[in-house]
Design a protein that fits this description.
Number of strands of chain A: 10
Structural class of chain A: alpha+beta
Low-confidence stretches of chain B: 146-158
InterPro entries (chain B): Boi1/Boi2-like, PH-like_dom_sf, PH_domain
Structural class of chain B: alpha+beta
Protein name (chain B): Pleckstrin homology domain-containing family J member 1
Strand content of chain A: 5-15%
Oligomer: heterodimer
Number of strands of chain B: 8
Number of helices of chain A: 6
CATH class of the domain at 7-106 in chain B: Mainly Beta
Helix content of chain A: 25-40%
CATH topology of the domain at 7-106 in chain B: PH-domain like
Radius of gyration of chain B: 18 Å
Order of helices and strands of chain B: EHEEEEEEEHH
Largest sheet of chain A: 7 strands, antiparallel
Organism (chain B): Echeneis naucrates (Live sharksucker)
Strand order of the largest sheet of chain B: 5-4-3-2-8-7-6
Largest sheet of chain B: 7 strands, antiparallel
Order of helices and strands of chain A: HHEHEEEEEEEHHEEH
Domain PH (chain B): 15-108
Chain lengths: 309, 158
C-alpha cells in the first residue's frame, strides 16, 4: 500500500512525463518540486550544481557521440525520441537537437551496457546492478546505430580513459627511453617547469616533482589547457629520468592491493590492454546474441561491423 | 535538469584516495565556510556533512579553474569567476597542493588532452600510432583536431 507521499510522486512523474518541457520556468519548478517530493519520500536530497553541468553540455568541449535515440520513460512505458549528446562520462538528452537546455543527464559510472528484451528493435540498456538503482532502456534506429552507441557507452566511463592514459604514459616513457638510448648524449628529462607562460607558480607543490603534463592551472579561457612543450633533448635541463610523476588520473595504483569487493560494480583491471580485450569480448558477445535472435527472425546476418583487430 | 541521483549517490560511496574534512564555502554571496567531508570520485567532488552517509551535493569538475588562494586554501571556479567560485580550506600547505593537483587531474577533459599529447608524442618518437593496436585510432574523441588546441602559449588567444 503506497503512502500518500509515494502516490503523489508517481502521479507527479506521470504528469511531467506528458509535458513537452519547452519553457524553462516549468523545468525549474519541476526540479524544485521533484527535489521536495522525491527527496522527502526517498531520503535523497543531493544537490548538483546544475549551471555547471549545463555549461559543460553547451560549451565547445568535444562531443564523443550524438544522435537520436528512443528512451523509455521512467514511469510511462512508452519510448520517446530524444536527442542524446555524449561528452565524456555524461550522457545528456534533449527533446530536439536544436533545444538549448538539456532535459536531463545520465552519469555513466557504475553501469554496464546490455542488450535487452524489448518489443522495440535495436534495443539496449544501461544497467546499474545494485538494488534500488535503475535501468535505462533505449532503442536505436538501426543495427549500426545500436552497435555504435553500445560501444561508445561501454567505454565512456572515467576509469576506461584513466587506464588508457596510464597505458599511453607508460608507452611514452618507453619511447623516450628508447629514443635516448640512440643518442650519444645522456638523456635528460625535459624541463616542464613553472617558467612556462601561463603557469601559476603557486600550482606546484614545493616539495614534489613537477607534473609531467605542462598544465596551466590558471587560465582566462574556458578551462585548463595543455601546452605542448617544445621537446628537444639537446636543450633539456638536467633532471633525472627517475623523477616520474606518480599517476595522471584518479585510479588505483598498480602496486596496491585490490580494493575490497563490495558495492563497486566497476572494474578492478589494472592494465588497459586487458580492459580493451574484455570490452572487445563483451561487444562481440552482444553482437552474436543479437545475431542469433535475428537468425530466428529470418533476417540476413550482417558482417561483424566492429573489428577489434 | 534531471539526473540519475541515486546512481550518483552510489558513486559517492566508491573508494577514493582524496577524501578529507575541509572548510568549504559555496559560491553565493553570503555563503559561509562550513566543515564538510569532501570526497573526490572520478570527475565529481562530493561533499557530506560530517558523519553523514549521503552527500549533500556534487560538483562536476569539468571546465573549471583550480587556483591556490593562499597557503592553505584553494578555489574551484566555473563560468565567470563572480558567479561560481567554491572555496576550500585545508589543514596544511601540502594537503592544499595535493587537492589542487588531484582535482585538475580528475577532469575527463584533462585526461583526454593528455591522451592526445602522449599519442602525438609516441607517434613522433616511434612513427607508430599507439592506439592502433587497440583498434580505436579512428575514434573521433581521440583526434587531435577535435576542437582542442594543443599549443596555446597565451590562453587569451583562444
Amino acid at each position: 500500500m503506497l503512502s500518500t507521499r509515494a502516490r503523489l510522486i508517481f502521479t507527479y512523474q506521470e504528469v511531467i512525463g506528458t509535458q513537452t518541457h519547452t519553457h524553462r520556468g516549468n523545468r525549474r519548478a519541476e526540479t524544485h518540486f521533484r527535489k521536495v517530493l522525491f527527496g522527502a519520500a526517498c531520503d535523497v536530497e543531493m544537490k548538483i550544481d546544475e549551471k555547471v553541468v549545463a555549461f559543460f553540455e553547451s560549451c565547445n568541449s568535444p562531443v564523443d557521440k550524438e544522435g537520436y535515440l528512443y528512451k523509455k520513460g521512467e514511469i510511462k512505458t512508452s519510448y520517446q525520441k530524444r536527442w542524446f549528446v555524449l561528452k565524456g562520462n555524461l550522457l545528456f538528452y534533449k527533446d530536439r537537437q536544436a533545444d538549448r537546455d538539456p532535459l536531463g543527464v545520465i552519469v555513466l559510472e557504475g553501469c554496464t551496457v546490455q542488450l535487452c528484451e524489448s518489443e522495440e528493435q535495436f534495443a539496449f540498456s544501461l544497467v546499474w546492478s545494485e538494488p534500488g538503482l535503475r535501468t535505462y532502456k533505449f532503442a536505436a534506429e538501426d543495427q549500426a546505430c545500436q552497435e555504435s552507441w553500445i560501444k561508445a557507452l561501454l567505454s565512456a566511463n572515467h576509469n576506461y580513459l584513466a587506464l588508457l592514459v596510464m597505458d599511453m604514459e607508460k608507452k611514452y616513457k618507453e619511447a623516450l627511453a628508447a629514443f635516448s638510448a640512440d643518442q650519444t648524449n645522456p638523456f635528460n628529462m625535459p624541463n616542464f617547469n613553472t617558467t612556462e607562460p601561463g603557469y601559476s607558480a603557486a600550482y606546484y607543490r614545493q616539495t614534489s616533482t613537477p607534473s609531467l603534463f605542462p598544465v596551466s592551472a590558471v587560465g582566462a579561457g574556458p578551462g585548463p589547457m595543455l601546452q605542448t612543450p617544445a621537446i628537444s633533448p639537446k636543450t633539456a635541463s638536467k633532471r633525472s629520468p627517475k623523477l616520474w610523476p606518480k599517476r595522471s588520473a584518479n585510479v588505483m595504483p598498480v602496486n596496491t592491493p585490490a580494493p575490497p569487493v563490495g558495492e563497486w560494480a566497476g572494474i578492478c583491471i589494472e592494465e588497459f590492454s586487458k580492459l580493451h580485450e574484455d570490452f572487445g569480448k563483451e561487444v562481440k558477445e552482444l553482437i552474436s546474441n543479437w545475431s542469433k535472435r535475428k537468425r530466428a527472425g529470418e533476417i540476413v546476418q550482417q558482417e561483424n561491423l566492429i573489428d577489434f583487430g | 535538469m534531471r539526473f540519475n541521483e541515486k546512481e550518483l549517490v552510489f558513486l559517492s560511496r566508491q573508494p577514493s584516495e582524496m577524501a578529507a574534512e575541509l572548510g568549504m564555502r559555496g559560491p553565493k554571496k553570503g555563503d559561509v565556510v562550513k566543515k564538510r567531508l569532501v570526497k573526490l570520485v572520478v570527475n565529481f567532488l562530493f561533499y557530506f556533512r560530517t558523519d553523514e552517509e549521503e552527500p549533500i551535493g556534487a560538483l562536476l569538475l569539468e571546465q573549471c579553474r583550480v587556483e591556490r588562494e593562499d597557503s592553505q586554501s584553494f578555489s574551484v571556479a566555473f563560468l565567470d569567476e563572480a558567479e561560481r567560485k567554491y572555496l576550500f580550506e585545508c589543514d596544511s600547505e601540502e594537503q592544499c597542493g595535493e587537492w589542487i593537483d588531484s582535482i585538475i587531474k580528475a577532469s575527463y577533459e584533462f585526461m583526454r588532452k593528455n591522451l592526445i599529447f602522449y599519442r602525438t608524442e609516441i607517434h613522433r618518437l616511434t612513427g607508430k600510432d599507439p592506439l592502433e593496436q587497440y583498434g580505436i585510432s579512428d575514434e573521433t574523441r581521440f583526434q587531435v583536431s577535435n576542437g582542442l588546441q594543443l599549443t596555446p602559449r597565451d590562453a587569451a588567444s583562444l
